[in-house]
Structures are given as structure tokens and as C-alpha cells.
UniProtKB/TrEMBL annotation:
Name assigned to this protein: ATPase family AAA domain-containing protein
InterPro entries per UniProt: AAA+_ATPase, AAA_lid_3, ATPase_AAA_core, ATPase_AAA_CS, MT-severing_AAA_ATPase, P-loop_NTPase
Domain of life according to the entry: Eukaryota
UniProt xrefs under PANTHER family: AAA DOMAIN-CONTAINING (PTHR23074), VACUOLAR PROTEIN SORTING-ASSOCIATED PROTEIN 4A (PTHR23074:SF83)
Protein family (similarity comment): Belongs to the AAA ATPase family.
Molecular function as annotated in GO: ATP binding; ATP hydrolysis activity
Keyword Ligase part of the UniProt annotation: no
Keyword vocabulary terms for this entry: ATP-binding, Nucleotide-binding
Domain AAA+ ATPase, residue spans: 77-215
Amino acid sequence: MGHGAKFDQNAIINKMSDVFALRRSRGANEQKENELKQKDISLATKLYKQLSHHQTACMNLTREQNFFDNPKSLLQPIRGILLEGPPGTGKTMIAKAIANECKCSFLNVKRELLQHSLLGESEKAMAALFQVARAMQPSIIFIDEIDTLFRSRSESMHEVSSRVLGIVLSQIEGLETNNSERITVIAATNHYSSLDPAISRRLPLKLHVPLERLDILKKLLKEEKFDFSKVDFDKIVSSTNQFSGADLKELCKMALHNPIVESTDQKTEPRPLRTEDFTSNVNSIKPINKELQQEQMLRNFWNSVNK
């Protein structure tokens, strides 16, 4: 698009609404239900602490500092972020929170429409996405479950996905050579090992998003009128390494039933909950994320990747 060309932002957004979920994170018409602040996401605090070591990721979007004016400098903006973690950890919400924090446009790619059956349509759609991102910058392009689109070459990758991957790689490479563009690609994956190494290299900032079980437990039990003074939540957390939010909810339900079942007099208050009410039921629940390794192993891995 030439510098003199007139850009009708609303027209393009409306035209492409069947391909991309586009949302402006700034302006008077911002929908309140889409506002995502750091305090609204239990994982965001820890994630922002990790991002604080990589402030250039956000500085490129906000342009609070002019650190990136010299194209020959070793200090260059981060163009790609990869969020890895099990399902249900809020990776999409975190990406939206970053966009909101930086007052960026948020372009959420609909994965199924990038796997178009007509020859060349998926590549055109991805190229158009980056064109819209440039017109709406500062902007964040979010690709969820990126491993399902761009699998490792050692595994089977659909021919269309392979062509789209080429477009994405060339577009990100173009961003890396043009410091004036305020665009960041954020991708999310549940299976890092399945991701094509080429796209992984273009997403240099890798952040592990764990299941924050302590926060989830406290939120689940917040409205319950039981005495929790004898409950060792840290012990429960350590015994539920691979539990998702849904698993923890089931565990809490089972634990809450114990004092009621044991109570013989309906007029008296149930006894206080004990740690054993939870831990004794752990083996009764088959974790949804059974294929995941222990979280400590994941943390060690991601720490080594980001050194």
C-alpha cells in the first residue's frame, strides 16, 4: 500500500471480518467486556514479571523510548513471543491483556480459515492480515494453537500450512528489518515439541504459562462457608501437579462433601475441612493434562531456552 493511498480502516475490517477476529484495544468505542487488565488475570502478575526482563517487547509497541531508531544497533525490538502451557491457563487472555496494556490493536487469527481448501487463499489471507496490522499499528497478531498450523517438518505438515508458514516467516523477517513498524506476533501452543523450528526461531521470547493451582483453589472455594483454617493448601498444590482447573473443581466438590456426609446432626455445623479431605481424593481424579510432564521439568526447560 503506497503512502498516498487512502486507507478506509472500517471498510477493510468489515470486509475481512469473516477471516479474522479483529478488535481495537483503544478508542471511545472499546467494549467494556473486552477490557482486560492485569488484575483480572491470576497468571498475569507472574507473566508481567517475566516480561519485565524483556521490556523491549512492549516498548516497541508503546514507543515510550526511542531505543530502536538505530537499525545498526544490537538493541532491536522483539517481534515474536511464544506462550507455552497446558490448556486452560489463559494464554489468549494474557495476549489480550498485553494488547490492552500497550493500547494496541488486537488481531486474533481464526485458525480454521487459514486452512482454506482453495489454492492460494490461505496465503492471501495471511498476507492481508499483516497488511491490516500495519494499517492499525501499534498492533498485536495473535495465533492460537500455532502447533496445529505449523508442525515440525519431521511430522506431517499440510501443503497449505507449509505455504502459509513461508508467508509468516517472510512477514516476520520483514518486521525485523524495519524498526519503524510497531507490530508484534504472539503465538500460543500446548505442544512446543511439535512446533516447526523455523517459526520457533522467529518467536524468540518464550514464556511458560503454568497452571496456577493455588490461585485456582482459592478462587473456587472463596464463596464456600466452611472453616479452612486446618487446610494446608501448599500440600494440596504439591499433590496435584498435572491438574487443570476442571480437575481442581472436581477435587473441591469431593472434599466439600466429606464433612457433610460425616455429620449426623443436621442442626450442627459441619466440621472444619482438613487437608486429607482433598489429598485422599487425588487418586480418584484422572488429570485432563495427563500427557504433560511435571511442571518443574517444564520450568527448567523454559529457563534453559531463555538463557
